[in-house]
Write a structure and sequence with these properties.
- By secondary structure, the protein is mainly alpha-helical.
- The protein contains 12 helices and no strands.
Length: about 260
Amino acid sequence: MFGFLIKKAFFDMWDNLFRIIIMNIGYIAVFAIFFLLAPLVTSLPVLFFGVMALGIAALSVYTGAVSRMCADIADYRQPGFADFFRFLRESLPSSLLYALVLTVYTLVVWYAFQFYGGMKSLLGPLAVALLFWVTVACVFASQYFFPIQSRLDRKFRKIFRKSFLVFFDNPGFSIGLLICALIVLIVSFFTALLLPGISTLLLWWNIAFKLRLYKYDWLEQNPGAKRRQVPWDALLVEDRERVGKRTLKGMIFPWKE
């Protein structure tokens, strides 16, 4: 299943390369604006944190709309850029709440690590360890936030809860997703985030969640079935037919196949 996920994500990106590049340019523009503003307010902590919070909010709102675009791409549709503003409006409330929670949590963890890290009693290391593992769980669960927002629900509380439920039900899969996402991010730095870029990360997570939902549909239709015996070959038949027997050689040299 994971091998097909990689193949589908790559060819979905390739088939929508223009859309991916344009959406990545949007991310580059947002980063550029706030990187230019940050040095101007470094001497004033209140303004600096204000700019940081505004930057997180802008990225979160933009990501909510990009994720909806990527969900359509994962479903073999070709969303137009006119759809972007509709997606932006529909995802705005939960995206802003996500930004608020992320900002507050980042500040709390930042100061909590400094406070408990300086303690000489046993409480200090225990608190730091607890915060570390909670943060790790949040990072893994956050991979599902925007895909769930795009495909299942718009209410922040439900999205937040489902994100953790999916993570804890699929820990190995979630670890694999994050490793591949980090590889994509590292490669993106060599192109200044133009390709594959952050939009490809959203596409990767949306495709992964789309395919993972097949598991839950199958379990719902087969109560009592063993969760470790999901018939992925049967569940992925339609998607494999849609993607086709494509190769890198055929993509670059189609006349040779």
